[in-house]
Structures are given as C-alpha cells and as structure tokens.
Amino acid sequence: MDYIYGKNTVLETLISAPKRVNKVFIQKGSGLDNRLKKIKEICSINSIPLEFTDFKRFKTLFEGDTNLQCVVAYVSPVSYKDFDEFLAEDNSEYRKIIILDGVNDPHNFGAIIRTAAAGGYDAVIIQNHRSSLVNSTVEKTSSGAVNKVSIIKVNSLNSAVQKLKDNNWWIIALTVHTENNYLDIDYKNMNFALVFGNEGAGITKTLINMADYKVKLPTNFESLNVSCCCAVMVYETMRQINYT
C-alpha cells in the first residue's frame, strides 16, 4: 500500500479522491490547525480510520521520510487513465495535454502535474519506462494535483503521438535546436500537446521530428529546469486562450 504525506497533499486527496484513502495518521501533540481539523472532519464524514500516533511510533512507521508535517495517509495507488479512452471522449471544447519524454525526477514530475492542474490541462502522458511514475514524492510535490489531472501511461510515446496527430492534435515540442519562439505560436482553437524532454538529453530525435512546431524559450542562461519551462509555456497558453 502506498502512502502520502503533508497537510496540503493529504487534505487535497481527501477532498478530491476520498475513496483512495484507507487510513490517516496524525502525530500526537502536533496541534490541530485548520488543515488538520479539516482532515479530521473529512475522515469522520467518509468513515475513514484516523489514528493519533505518538511521536516515536509515527517516526518508526515512516522512517526515512522528512517533512511529513505530522500527517500521513495510506492510499490506494493512482489509477492511470487509458489513452484510447481519453482519445475517444466526446468533448465539445478544445483540449490540451502535456507529454513527458523521459522526465525521471519525481520532483519535476510532481511540479509539472501541479502546473497542469493549475493551467486546466486535461492530461499528462508518460511512458512505461524511462520515466518517473507516480510515487509518494510525486504526490507530495504535486500537492494532491494527481487527483485532478488524468495521468496516462503508454508503452510507446511515438505511437501515442502518431495517434494524436491522426486525431487532429497539434504537437508542440520544446527544444533548444530551433530559432522559433514559443510566444509566436497561436495556441487557440486547436487540440494541442506540449512535449518536454529528459532533464539532460531533452526530447528524443524521433519525437522532435514528429512535432508540428518546434519552439524554444529565449533566456539569458543556458537552460531552465524542465518544470520551470513547463510552467512558462502553460501560462502563456492560458494567457492566450483565456485573456486574448
């Protein structure tokens, strides 16, 4: 059984996906602030077992983790959404997703999921191998956003991208190997996927060649962290779609 930790993460999971939560532990003597009181209340409403645990047992149960913020929950694993089901969904509005090609740092993955949720994105697609999967670090970094955005796991990103293209999606890849500015793309009135690559190697050559648009972020430094790049592009798409 997996576990998640941190007040915001546990609370958001209880609000968004209470059926995932099997049991909650709160460290005795931590003091019930507003978030812990809300956690206690939701557990009671949903008949979720809640145990107040002394410091020694709390640390023994979750030895090795830091910054638990006095609360931990045992949860069922995140359910990955089926890619074909996602494609087949009838949606009258244009959709937008993020594709991660080999992003293997769980902190980056969690931050990107959080950004996707904030930006109103419909899904994040990852590959079965060469990528970080959802774990407690990803859940903590996302602050519970894993329950708000569909996460799709596929065997082949190349095949998934081809299916998207066959279904009238536009593929936009972020790479340093282009002179095209990400600000010059019109993100309105289309289904599109933003593609981000591995922290060191970037996007694979095959996916780069499949992209309809190749763009870069002009900076005064060699590169930005992939989760920062994602946030910059997501908020530009939000600006265009919602405010222009």
Q: Main attributes?
A:
36% helix, 10 strands, 244 residues, alpha/beta, 9 helices, single chain, six-stranded parallel beta sheet
Low-confidence stretches: none
In which order are the strands of the major sheet placed? Answer: 7-6-5-9-8-10
Helicity range? 25-40%
What's the end-to-end separation, in Å?
A: 46 Å
Shape category = elongated
Q: How is the main sheet built?
A: 6 strands, parallel
Rg, rounded, reads: 20 Å
Number of alpha- plus pi-helical segments: 9
Please tally the β strands and state the result.
10
- Along the chain, the helix and strand elements come as EHEHEHEHEHEHEHEEHEH
Strand-residue fraction?
Answer: 15-25%
Look at the structure and give the mean pLDDT: 92
What structural class do the secondary elements suggest? Answer: alpha/beta
Structure report:
- The chain has 244 residues and is of the alpha/beta class.
- It has 9 helices and 10 strands.
- The strands form 2 sheets. It has a 6-stranded parallel beta sheet, sandwiched between helices. The protein has a 4-stranded mixed beta sheet with strand order 1-4-2-3.
- Strand 5, helix 5 and strand 6 form a beta-alpha-beta unit.
- It is elongated.
- The N and C termini lie far apart (46 Å).
- The mean pLDDT is 92.
Summarize the SSE layout with pairings.
Layout: E1 2-5, H1 7-16, E2 21-27, H2 34-45, E3 50-53, H3 55-61, E4 71-75, H4 83-88, E5 96-101, H5 106-118, E6 123-127, H6 136-142, E7 150-154, H7 157-166, E8 169-174, E9 191-197, H8 205-210, E10 213-215, H9 226-243
Parallel strand pairs: 2-3, 5-6, 5-9, 6-7, 8-9, 8-10
Antiparallel strand pairs: 1-4, 2-4
Helix pairs in contact: 1-2, 5-6, 5-9
